[in-house]
Amino acid sequence: MLDDFMARAALAGVGVALAAAPIGCFVVWRRMAYFGDATAHAAILGVALSLGIGISVFGGVLAVALAIALAILSLARRGHAMDTALGVLAHAALAFGLVAVALLPGVQIDIQAYLFGDILAVSRSDLALIWAGAVAVSAGVLWRWPGLLTATLNPELAIAAGIDPHRERQVLTLALAVVVAVAIKVVGALLITALLIIPAAAARPFARTPEVMAAMAALTGVISALAGLGTAWILDTPAGPTIVCVAALIFAASSALSRAATTRG
Question: 57-77 vs 165-183: helix axis angle to the nearest 10?
Fold first, then answer.
């Protein structure tokens, strides 16, 4: 089955959707959309680093995404305005990454594939990394779920319960960096945040508990990935953007159904 590129693409999309869903819920709850965007934009600088020093793209992207995320947290704790820090680091990392890729001697890469993803070119080794990352993120979130949830909903209550909100934010930051590293091959640096946020936002109106929202977000992400791949195959459109388009249509339908239910109620 793995000899078929569409089968590999489908498995890759499902793996990324499962990894992104729980982290996306926390991004929505904490209103960290721009934080996720800044971390994703840093992925291009990670690609340049990995090609320049001869390490795996996954390792380079993970290191730079984590470094940028921790730098943003550090600036915020020192009193810098969060939106300013996010704007500076996000665009600077993307710009430096694009310039660094252009200056790499003797290296020719398809930068579009890293900006918008190239899920149809996923290899067996890429697939193994994606699923290893998805399992690691899912296991980590399940392990830290009570602490992460309490620190997200009520930091003061978390402190009273002996939970360090800063430590939980660092755990979330590490998980987000892993998701960025495994998702860059599928949807690209410019669309990773969309796959984090849109499924969670679509699930939110119909979820009664945080756990149900995470599960519904995962289902929405999986449906978006598979339906997006099928649509891209039929219409001959770019797969990564098409996956995000399908997710956006699901969000629009979810919002319309939610408003209709509210009106009837």
Answer: 150
